Amino acid sequence: MDQTVQVTADRADRADRSRPRARMTGPERREQLIAVGRKLFADKGFEATTVEEVAAKANVSKPVVYEHFGGKEGLYAVVVDREIQALMGGISAALEEPEGARVLLERATLALLDYIENDPSGFRILVRDSPPGQSTGSFASVLGDVAVQVEHLLAAEFKQRGLDPKSAPIHAQMLVGMVALTGQWWLDRRKFKKDQVAAHLVNLAWNGLSGLDRAPRLVTLPHR
Asked: Rounded to two decimals, what is the model's pTM?
């Protein structure tokens, strides 16, 4: 009796495997390829990932990848664009509420660290290599966009403190760069909790800003 049941089960299993699977719709296939490409780009980077590998992982032929994205560059652009939207969306939301500069600094710092914590693969894609000649979509360009938002906040704060608002752009770049590089370090060295990292960053940035000289000068001039 048991052998008969096993034979019946084996036949049913073979019949199920031989039954043609439902084909993905165009949008479903596109999302599948994006998911496959995203993982490969995060693990290996743009240069080391090939169209052949994407197609093999998705169990499709190479022409299918070209049909949807025109090539590896097109797929990479879509993946990066989504990551940029996710990161910028979090930071922009953190800066929307009209609060004091210190609170906004804390929120923006936590927004970046939240993204790194919740989406490490996406962050790795942004900080990895990008296609040669690509001027947008790199991590540097993302940080530049964030710095522009921070710049306006700093300019207003500088005016209140009697400092030159024209120096806000360079301070914005320094602040954003400091947070971003620390985030990269924290991504692979989770020795500190997220809130601790944010607290240390804000402590350095805020206390440094609160003690700025009106006309900063170097103590020793470099030899020329």
From this structure: 0.73
